[in-house]
Amino acid sequence: MDRETKPSQTPRPQPPRQPRARIPLPFEKRPFDAGSWAYEHRVGLCCMVIAYLAFGIVFVSAKIVLQQRVTYNTIYMDLTDLQAALPEEQEPEQRDERSDYRDVRNLVSDENGRNESVGERSASSGNLSEATEEFMESLDEEAAAVVRRIFHSVVAGESIASIARALRAEKIPIPSEHWKRIGAPVRAAKYTDPYAWSTTTISYILKRPEYTGRKVLGKTVCENYKTKSTRKTAPEEQYIFDGEIPAIVDEETWNTVQRLMGTKRRAPKRQNTPNRLTGLLYCADCGAKLTHRSSLVQGKYLDDAFVCSSYRQLTRDCTMHYIPTAKMEAAILAAIQRVSWYVRHNEAEFIERVREASDQHQENAVKEYRQKVSKAQRRCKELDGLVKKLYEGNATGKIPDKHFTRLLAEYDEEQTGLEAAISQWQEAIESWNADRLKTDKFIELVNRYTDFSELTTPMLNEFIEKVVVHEGEGRGNSRRQRIDIYLNFIGAFEVPAHIVTPMEAEEQRRQQEEQTAKEAHSQELAKAREEKRKAEKREFTARKKAGLLTPEEQAADEARLAHNRAWQKEWREKRKAAEPPKSPKPKSLKELAALQKAGADLTPEEAERLAAYRERKNRQHKAWYERQKAAQPPKPRTLKELAAAQVAGQPLTPEEAERLEASRSRKKNAYQELKAQAETDPAAAAELARRRAYHSEATKKSRQKMYEEAAAGNPAAQARYENFLAARRENYHRKKHDEKGEQIA
Length: 745
What we know:
By secondary structure, the protein is mainly alpha-helical. The chain is built from 25 helices and ten strands.
């Protein structure tokens, strides 16, 4: 129902219209910027939305044209991927936060999934990948034994082709066939022969770091999601986790195999395997590797040696650096034997010497790198100042734009190179500070071997890092050539020169025997030649005396004699002309002695001659006297010496003991007779009193000396003094006991 209004009433004022609620913008609370304009004007808001859309279209189009990865998230989320372009210093921190390689594996799988086409991925493919990863995390002993055999065969010097032939001959299944037999997922293509081992398969096995216990993720990355083109990633782009899977081979064996595979080896003609020293020998002058050469003559290899590859190919101005293979192997074996024996018998000294050499080398290298870093940092600061001044000059118009662009590019290139060099030098400093020569690994390697009598291929590959060969000096038997042998883990270690190992002693003895036998053989040959010459001469002389020489032989003999006479005359004349004038004949020693006895004066030279002669005569006479004395039978020891020897506990012969006992009996009997005479004879009583006083004084002095020696801390004197006191106490108690028994009786 409509309401009626009175015309006299005024209309009620309407309340003001409330503003419509707007969508809050991120810059709503920040005035004085572009957001304030867009907030106040609807046209500005529309322009901002259109600008955002245009920027998104241009961004995605640019990434498609440049064949970069496009994610299906928002542009903001794609911009967060730019943190991968941050400096390399932040990458280790980001990687360390990912403690589990499974999380990284999931991230890499998700990223690869985004790079594929929009269509659905096969569920079986994902399940196969996960099952394969889980299978690799467990250790299959049967497959591990085959892998170890392949690695050890390479270390032993076998070629990859020979390893493949051996595996095919023994009917060992290939990896795909083995996985299929044990029920593991197989991703390989179809195959007809389950034992068709190839060099490609074995090479792939030898290059996989997973066999050392390392898990590597992110080996490849998709470049174009349309064409699905991929590229191999650099080592710094990969994710490596140590100890996440069981290790099949140790780190040293894997490194040795990689070094052997990185060396190109070519087998000589009519041979299946290359020389085992190939790739280990280096030229000391040009740094190139030495190549092996041999010549086949009548089924035998002659001139088996190594020469510088630069000299052989005429690529550089270098010398031959010729060294026979046998001598090289003998030198390497001798070095390994010497160092191994030194390590086993002087382990503590070996560790100390290696660490001292490492510290000295480290100190020098770190000092040099620090100087380079300091110099490069100063130059970087100078470039920063130059770039700042360059910008100021360009802004004020003092420097044109073309000069500004050119100079800025040069400064930027120089600064980029300096920063890369600084990073490399700092890494070297850190590695030097953190890395020590691993003496424990070398000691473990030495203890692994028990026989060093023969140089085997595994021993060569595990012990030797490289050998630097210098140019030889001299010719023939006098040729000498320096060889620097670098061992794994310790480098060019030198055993002290005064140490002679048993192997070296045996080798020296053998060489001495060979030299002696060679000299004896040469003497026998010379003696045989001399006997033959003498026999021919005797036969010729006999024929000459008998007049049986032919006219030609007579003429030749006369010419020979005439030539000899002329030559001898000429030689005597030359010798006589070359000799200095003879000095007057010196006086004899007899004449000099007579002149000295007569009181005549002698020259200093004559006096020195006479003194030296007399001294020589005295030495000769003394030596003769000593020989005569030594030839005489030894004199018997005196009674005093025998008594001292008995006290010292030295054994005596029956004759000496009988002599000593007889002497003591005579003295005892004489003393008893003196005591009996002293009762009636005053002279005997005086003699007895004198002897008793002498004995008492001697006993007193002996006891005083024994006490002083014991007080000085002599252990033997202390023991002797304790025994003396114990004997005195025993005698005292025995005497008291005897007296008490007499009183009772």
